[in-house]
């Protein structure tokens, strides 16, 4: 997505160097927080953390803190660990729910051990995250509890069909906001809070994080259909094969055009057959729903950047604006 060693573009060399250094320290702290009382627990808890990842959430904490008067406060580092531990813990549970065998190129915990170990390891990491949150004070505890509630509720809603009279698209957007947007919103909020930013900046960055976090997932939806596997490294149609509803698919399913009858027929079931999936991909790529989905994500990026006007012009605001643009237009 970017040539930067970070998960988002930072054009200011001094800021980039500072963030790279601080993120390396966060990596060390995360390894410490994954230590259990026995080697077995430590091995399970460090399994996914050691597999890597973009570390976007802790990076956003660190970057948002730069909008305040004391970005180097130790509470900022603690908050960065809180959000990443929460995220990684949720991945252990996600992999059990999805019966996934691989995560970040490594065996999932449920594949390497079993579902019980994976679930309990996720719980262990949630516990570690809660311990650290308690060190941040009652406001952080309340925010973390609210975030965790939304994250779990989003995961639950993902497993159920929309209710009678409920718009399937709105149901899905609520799932995305809960599962993905909520924790990224808290990442930006924590950074600004503990970095000493003004209250209006804290709120703006919270809202920015939720919008950009959701947009990142929705751009993944578009890539699952539009991407060329050679260029993106992704296998197109994975969500179609698994019958997972996504933004372009839901927009296409809202069509009442008789010409879409074949596409709607294909989208009614998981497309495990390679030939049928290829046919659906071809029809979707030529369908107006793709442009509608892209317009939706572009609109979110514009909305997110508008929120940043409360920040003073400078490298922090520029980095956040650039990331919103990349999320909306990325090809991998």
From TrEMBL:
<dbReference type="Pfam" id="PF00348">
    <property type="entry name" value="polyprenyl_synt"/>
</dbReference>
<dbReference type="InterPro" id="IPR000092">
    <property type="entry name" value="Polyprenyl_synt"/>
</dbReference>
<protein>
    <submittedName>
        <fullName>Polyprenyl synthetase family protein</fullName>
    </submittedName>
</protein>
<keyword id="KW-0460">Magnesium</keyword>
<comment type="similarity">
    <text>Belongs to the FPP/GGPP synthase family.</text>
</comment>
<keyword id="KW-0808">Transferase</keyword>
<dbReference type="InterPro" id="IPR008949">
    <property type="entry name" value="Isoprenoid_synthase_dom_sf"/>
</dbReference>
<dbReference type="InterPro" id="IPR033749">
    <property type="entry name" value="Polyprenyl_synt_CS"/>
</dbReference>
<keyword id="KW-0479">Metal-binding</keyword>
């Amino acid at each position: 997505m970017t040539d930067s060693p970070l998960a988002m573009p930072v054009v200011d060399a001094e800021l980039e160097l500072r963030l790279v250094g601080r993120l390396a320290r966060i990596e060390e702290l995360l390894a410490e927080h994954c230590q259990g009382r026995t080697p077995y627990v430590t091995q399970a808890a460090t399994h996914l953390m050691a597999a890597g990842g973009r570390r976007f959430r802790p990076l956003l904490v660190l970057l948002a803190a730069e909008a305040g008067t004391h970005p180097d406060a130790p509470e900022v580092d603690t908050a960065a660990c809180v959000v990443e531990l929460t995220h990684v813990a949720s991945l252990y549970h996600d992999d059990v729910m999805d019966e996934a065998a691989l995560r970040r190129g490594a065996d999932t915990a449920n594949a390497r051990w079993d579902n019980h170990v994976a679930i309990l390891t996720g719980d262990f990491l949630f516990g570690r995250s809660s311990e650290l949150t308690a060190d941040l004070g009652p406001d952080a505890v309340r925010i973390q509890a609210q975030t965790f509630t939304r994250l779990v509720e989003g995961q639950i809603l993902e497993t159920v069909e929309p209710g009678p009279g409920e718009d399937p698209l709105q149901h899905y957007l609520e799932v995305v906001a809960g599962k993905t947007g909520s924790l990224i919103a808290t990442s930006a909020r924590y950074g600004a809070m503990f970095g000493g930013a003004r209250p209006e900046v804290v709120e703006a960055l919270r809202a920015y994080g939720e919008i950009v976090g959701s947009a990142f997932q929705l751009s993944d939806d578009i890539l699952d259909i539009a991407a060329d596997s050679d260029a993106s490294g992704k296998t197109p149609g994975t969500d179609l094969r698994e019958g997972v509803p996504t933004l372009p698919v839901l927009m296409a399913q809202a069509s009442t055009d008789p010409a879409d009858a074949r596409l709607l027929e294909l989208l009614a079931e998981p497309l495990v057959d390679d030939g049928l999936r290829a046919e659906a991909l071809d029809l979707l790529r030529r369908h107006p729903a793709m442009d509608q989905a892209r317009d939706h994500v572009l609109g979110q990026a514009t909305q997110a950047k508008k929120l940043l006007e409360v920040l003073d012009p400078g490298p922090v605001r520029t980095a956040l604006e650039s990331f919103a643009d990349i999320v909306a237009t990325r090809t991998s």
